[in-house]
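Allow me, if you will, to draw on your knowledge of protein folds for a short while. I have a record of one protein: its chain in single-letter code and its fold written as discrete structure tokens. The full record is reproduced below for your convenience:
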Amino acid sequence: MSSENGARLQQGVLGTADIVFMVMAAAAPLGVVVTLVPIAFAFGNGGGLPGTFLCAVVAMLLFAVGYVRIMPFVRNAGAFYAYITASFGRECGLAAAYVAALSYIALSCSTLTSLAFFTAQFVENLTGVKSHWVLWAVLSLIALTILSYHHISLAAKVLGVALTAEVALILLLDGAIIYHAGPHSVTLQSFTPRMMFAPGLGIAAIYAFNSMLGVEGTAIYQEEARERSVTIPRATYICVTVIGLFYVLTAWCLAIAVGPEQVGAVARSSLGTFVADQGIAQLGKWAGMVFGVLTVTSSFAAALALFNNATRYLFALARDGVLPGALSRIHHRYRSPHIAGLLLAALLAVVITASAIAGLDPLVNVTTALVGLGSVGLMALLAVMALAIPLFFLKKRMFGLGRSAAPAIGGTVIAIAVYLAFANYSAITGVNSVVVNHLPYLLVVVALAGGAQARWLRVRKPGIYAQIGATRVDESAGTAAGVRGADRPSSARESQALYPCD
């Protein structure tokens, strides 16, 4: 193994709160509430959306139960990549890694272009001065690169401030709605089977799961976490529960504000301003300006978190020898994967430049095309990962509700959502472009390319092939890639001590 491949990220700098901020910022709660929730109301099952969100939370928690149990056995900054390798083999693992890398790069780029669009719009509304979105895209990309280049804890602090502000605003809106509605209007109608199973349930399920993507981010930061055996599982449960219930509460309050029976029609008539209109009605005119400011900060926070996720995937692949070794180099002072970050910045700069030359609209063309690609890719990986967990423990002859049944049930529900996403992909993108709505097939092409490369490496370069998922740690392998055997359960008895509910 080369020195690059043996490189380690900065150790012990992220606590539970830091990781929660990173993951929740990538979920962009304000962006989801402002953009996705109105679309789900309008084209999904209307007032039954809060119940759909609740079902998605349950499925994700079942997945998380198994997810936190596999973490002590497999350590890698590539997360799903390493776990799928451990369960299904290196060919499937490398295929999954390429899908994940493409998905995170696509989401990073889509969030950057939407950030540029909203910033230009906000500046124009505030000052009356028009500016080209490319200017804000370039300035934002420079800021993202600088923050990613430095200590990861600096990025976590920036994300924490932005996330706290946007969540506080939405919770203030939720409280105002409940206060003004009065006890007679606060009803659980949105959680009844009649509302949940109304026409459009499939589309609502797509947006419900799409809103919760990013849970993988907890494992991505394993190497940089303090007391990772405690910090990462705790952060995973907090993220799934808090993000999920936040969306359940907010969707429920918005349905109450308009009326569960009418919310679908109202959302269809004011998709772009639905939430801001409610903010002004419930809180006053000042809320419109605050929503504008926090939409920009939320987009920046999400772009930064996704930028860090994509960078760490490139780093993990390079450290295992699949990508050029230079990408696994660690900055001598900041202990960050700075070369991988600079490459990602260059890729995003190319997309921005090409989009500007082609005269594409940053929101309608670029963001729409890439957000669907990245979201479906991560949903598919989530389903595969959930089904990989029972297989991993079956091979080790370790059984239990948390290791087998829970992730299998959660994975089955997520797999159904993936099917619905493919079948209703145009509902995610919101456009009729044949090219855009066939982008998910690019995920299949990339997966096949990864599997083919793994097969080629097995024949031509068996040493590199053996490094795919090299940081995997299991009972038979002992330690690997600088990870101590004491960091993971060495037996079923020790695992039982960590997770007594098994």
Summary: The two ends are 37 Å apart (CA to CA). Residues 16-482 form a domain with the Amino acid/polyamine transporter I fold (CATH 1.20.1740.10). Confidence is low (pLDDT under 50) at residues 1-6, 472-501. DSSP finds 21 helices and no strands in the chain.
